[in-house]
Amino acid sequence: MTLNEIAKKMCAKGKGILAADESTGTIAKRFKSINVENLEKNRLIFRQTLFNAGSMKDCIGGVILFDETIKQKTTLGPTIPELISKHGAIPGIKVDMGTTQLAGRPQETITQGLDGLRERLKEYYDLGARFAKWRAVVEISHPDQYVGTTPTIGGIKANTHALGRYAALCQEAGIVPIVEPEVLMGGYHNIDRCQEVTEITLNSLFTELYEQGVKLEGIILKPNMIVAGKKCAQQPSREEIAERTLKVLKNTVPAAVPGIAFLSGGQNNEEATRNLDMMNKIGGFPWKLTYSYGRALQQSALFAWKGQESNYKLAQEAFSHRAKMNSLASTGEWSQDLDES
Questions:
Q1: pLDDT of 326-335, one tens digit each?
Q2: Residue % of the chain over a pLDDT of 90
Q3: Is 281 in the active site?
């Protein structure tokens, strides 16, 4: 398949992307919440339980994996990428190496992982990956903070430049890049500030992609929605979130991009679903708008599983429900009644 065909398959009608790329440290925190030991066998069992759920075929177009996971064999024999492909989804891989302090701007971060990326992409391609993900982080400082205010233009440009270089290397390797410039939602900023920063970031990103020769028809954008910071006293309605998000996307994202798969960014299960649904109910845009959720797809399954073999079916049912609800949201057909039924 061409890069464009892969991207379109990942974002086909009613389908989204499962972000199962938690690092060993991140999944340790999630396992701790259900008193499960963070062992490789437990990580494998939980993930293959999800990947065998009934909703995989109809609701999941791609699965983002961690380095450990893409190299694992299931307990039944096939490799994890083979299991995902069996259900009609495309295996992918997280390739960034996390963030570190940005030189000269200690209040900001830069994502690492470009060194040796060409060689790693070849290895991942041979293992079955046909898309990759790289996350850049943009943090908005407290509104009353005048010294060290973030983000800076230099910090945004450093991160979008890295995203451009990563995307070009992916396409060279025959791999679709998911480009993820995340404006964090944990602060005190209002929705106006989120809109301003997100628009600047996306404009910078597409400038870099163009300058580095990235084919836009062969990428997927994974942005944040336009929301107020979690600590902001004034929280917007789903209608305002949807309208402002669509406005920013229409101002910045070329129509050549086949799919936009939102990150949940700390929204709870229902928030992530209803906000996506509202955008698709409004309509009037050239891209496929869908989901690339991790916790918002997996959390209910994790609590149903609790590390016990007897709960595998319950975990799969919980995952399938959330996948189905987000599938409906990706076509503007979700409702509160359906979610609660």
A1: 999 999 999 9
A2: 95
A3: no
Give me the residue label for tokens 């106006």.
192
Active-site residue, 180 included? yes
CB pairs under 8 A, 24+ apart, for 201-205? 201/138, 201/151, 201/156, 201/160, 202/248, 202/249, 202/252, 202/253, 203/252, 204/156, 204/157, 204/160, 205/160, 205/163, 205/164, 205/179, 205/181
> How many Å is the maximal CA-CA distance in the chain?
57
Length of the chain: 341
Q: What are the start-end ranges of the H helices in 60-177? A: 67-70, 80-86, 117-127, 153-172
- Rounded to 10°, the helix 40-51/24-32 angle is 80
Q: Is the distance from CB of 126 to CB of 88 less than 8 angstroms?
A: no
How many Cβ atoms sit within 10 Å of the Cβ of residue 54?
14
Check: CB of residue 153 under 8 Å from CB of residue 126: no
The catalytically annotated residue of 8, 15, 133, 222 is: 222
Closest by Cα among 313, 275, 316 to 293:
275
The two tokens of residue 105 are 């701007």
pLDDT tens, position by position, 5-17:
999 999 999 999 9
Residue 311 has pLDDT above 80, yes or no: yes
Q: For residues 239 and 245, what is the distance between their CA atoms, to the nearest angstrom?
A: 10
In the predicted structure, residue 140 carries a pLDDT above the cut 70: yes
Which SS3 state, helix, strand or coil, does residue 173 take? Answer: coil
Whole-angstrom distance, CA of residue 169 vs CA of residue 210: 14
CB 92 within 8 A of CB 65: yes
Tokens of 17: 């992307």
Predicted confidence (pLDDT) per residue in 257-306, tens digit? 999 999 998 899 999 999 999 999 999 999 999 999 999 999 999 999 99
d(CA 129, CA 93): 6
Residue 291 CA, distance from chain mean position: 7
Helix (H, G, I), strand (E, B) or coil at 63: strand
Residue among 108, 180, 182, 199 flagged as catalytic:
180
Assign 3-state DSSP to the chain and report helix, strand, coil percentages, each to 5: 50, 15, 35
